[in-house]
Structure formats: C-alpha cells, structure tokens
Amino acid sequence: KGLATPEKAMITLDAMKALDPCQLKPDSMETERIITILDETIAKLEMSSLIPCIIDSLDRFADMLGPEITNNLIEHQKLSNEMEHLLASWEEEDTTRAEEQRGCLCLLEQRLKCSVRNVLRLLLANPLLCQALKYEARARESPAELFIKAFGEFRNFMLERLLTSPMEEEEKIKFMEDISLQIKKNAEAITALQAELAAAIRTREEEIHKKDNVIKDLKTSMQDLAKVCKAGIQQIKQEGEKQQKEELQASQARCARLQQDIQQLGAQLNALVLEHRASELALRKRKCRVETEIVNWIQKYDTDMGEKQAEYEDVNAAYTEEKAQLSLLMEKRAVLLQEYSQIEEERRICQEKKEQALKEFTTMTLAATRIQAFWRGYLVRSLFKSKRKKKKKKKGKGKKTKK
C-alpha cells in the first residue's frame, strides 16, 4: 500500500534506473583510463592462463607463433620445470640450506615473472595471433577461469561505482534503506498479525467449544429451564460485551505502546541520520582531498612520462646516428682489413724475395771468397815457384865461376 501512490512509483522507477549498470556511460578521461587498464589486465590474464596449454601443444602452435615467441615459451617452460624441481627438493631436504634455497627461489621467481612479461608483450603485440590462440587453445584451468570471471565482475562493479554520481548514490542508498525499513515494518506487522490471528483463532475455538457445551446443556434443559436459558443468554451477552470492552481497552493500550515505540524509533532514526550526515560530510571532504591528490599525481605522472619520452627520443636519435656511423666505420674497416691483408701478403712476398736474394748473395759471397782464396793461394804458389827457379839458376852460375 505504501508504494501504490504515483509519486512513490516514480521514485522507485528512478532508483531502479540508478541501480541498472547498463544505463551508465563513461563521462571522464580518468574513468576511461581506469576501465582501459582493467580491460588490458583481463586480456593479459586470459593470455597468461592459456600459456600452459600452449606450451603443452607447442609443436602444434610453433608455425603460428614464430621462432621468437617459441624460444621465449621454451625458456619459460625450462624456468617452470626448474621452479618445480627446486620446490620439490626444498620439501625433501632439511632446513640447514633453507636460506640458500629461499634466495634461489626468489631469484628464480623474478626470472619467471620477467619471462611471463616477455611472453605476454610478444603475444599482445599481435592481436590476430591472440584471437587465433583463444580460438585454438580453449582449455583453461578452473581456478584461472573463476579468477578471470571474478575480475570481470570486479571490472563491472568498478565501472558502476565510477559512473554513479553522488546524487544517484545517495538516492540508491536512501531507496535501499526505505525498502529495508519497509520490509522490516511489514515483517513486524505480519508477525504481530499472525500472533493476533492465532490468539483469536484459539479464543474463537474455545468460545465455540464452550458454546457447544452450553447449547448441548440448553437443548437438554430447554423445555424445563426457559427462564434460566434466557438469564443465561443475557449473562453470556453481558460477558461477551465485557470481554469485548476488555479486549478493546487492551488493544488501545497496545496501540499506545506501539505509538510510543514508533516515536522512540523515529527519534533514534533522526539521531542516526544526523550522525550519518556528519560522517558523510567528513567522507566527502576526504574524497575531495583524495581526488585532488590523484589529479596532482596523474599530472605529475604525465609530466614525468613526457620528459622520459622526450629523453628516450633524444637517446634513440643519438643511438640511431651512432649506429649509422658504426655501420659506416665497419664498412670502412672491412675495406681497410682487405687492403691490409693485401699489403701484408705483398710484404710477405717481398720478405721472401729478400731472404732468397740474401741467401743467394751469401752463397755467392762465400763462393767468391773461396775462389779469391784459391786464386791468391795459386798466385802465392806461382810466385814461390818462380823465386825458387831464380835461386837455383843463381846457384848454378856461382858454381861455374868458382871452377
């Protein structure tokens, strides 16, 4: 009955529209950014949940993935196997090497995270490949599917909360409070009416039972006790009127108590409304401060990212220029190496020729020295022979003159 009026019907319709998330549309850049980040996260979760299935059927997907993604997946599988082996060995061994095992586990966990990020970056860079993999590799583990579904519900909840204005939120809360209060009142009224109905039924049954007994007694003594019957009937009427008056008084007293309780509950409701309004005002101020801080952080982030992007572009331009210079120098180096090898070959040939000439010169010098020595010896011997002949001739002449 309380919701049958047109005004309350319109309020209910507006509140139901506010509760419907399909009526909400993005109205700010920050909301679109947050929803975009959540959608990208869902896409990454879907692709990361397909990685075990892809690795299990890597031979079937190798042509589709390409060599780079295949190599990264093989490296990821090796890291996963190493992680499982390390966890199994950690459970089997004693606690003496716990710190060393924990350090290795942390390092391996970091490498595994980097491997997952690399694989996701390579996969998400090709949207057509992602769609094909989703179509081919449909099998996911149930925990991953439940987590992705829960994250999608969280995304819809965040979209609803981000796109709901404070006025709509207040109307929604007020509507829910009115509904809960109305349900509570209806439940209390139903409980009270059921109790009264049960009591009335019991009273009615008792009265019917008493009246049946009286009727039976009156039927047996109707002919002899007509006057007594009339007196009894009058007495019953008086008792009924008296009982009706007593019940009416009791009902009025109960209504007064209920009215007093309603007044007390209304006072408590007003006090709670004032308290909640004060807390809501404090929360709104805190929300304004947090929104201001978020805007400042976003602006600072945009400025820092712009500076980093400019620095990256400068470094990339310098790197491209140095790379071009390096390629030019490498070409020159190749030409110079070829010329140097030719010059070295020519030097080697010249050196061999010089060594051969020197060897020949040494041989000729040694031969000439021997020839000269032989010739000198021959001249000396010839000179000594001529002198001996002269001495013999002089001795022969001297002997002749002495005679």
Automatic annotation (TrEMBL):
Keyword Cytoplasm: yes
Keyword list, A-Z: Cell projection, Cilium, Coiled coil, Cytoplasm, Cytoskeleton, Flagellum
Domain of life per record: Eukaryota
Coiled-coil region list: 241-275, 326-360
Cell compartments where the protein resides: Cytoplasm, Cytoskeleton, Flagellum axoneme
Major localization class: cytoplasm
InterPro entries linked: DRC10, IQ_motif_EF-hand-BS
Family affiliation: Belongs to the DRC10 family.
Subunit-structure text: Component of the nexin-dynein regulatory complex (N-DRC). Interacts with CFAP52.
Described function: Component of the nexin-dynein regulatory complex (N-DRC), a key regulator of ciliary/flagellar motility which maintains the alignment and integrity of the distal axoneme and regulates microtubule sliding in motile axonemes.
Entry protein name: Dynein regulatory complex protein 10
Source species of the chain: Haliaeetus albicilla
UniProt lineage: Eukaryota, Metazoa, Chordata, Craniata, Vertebrata
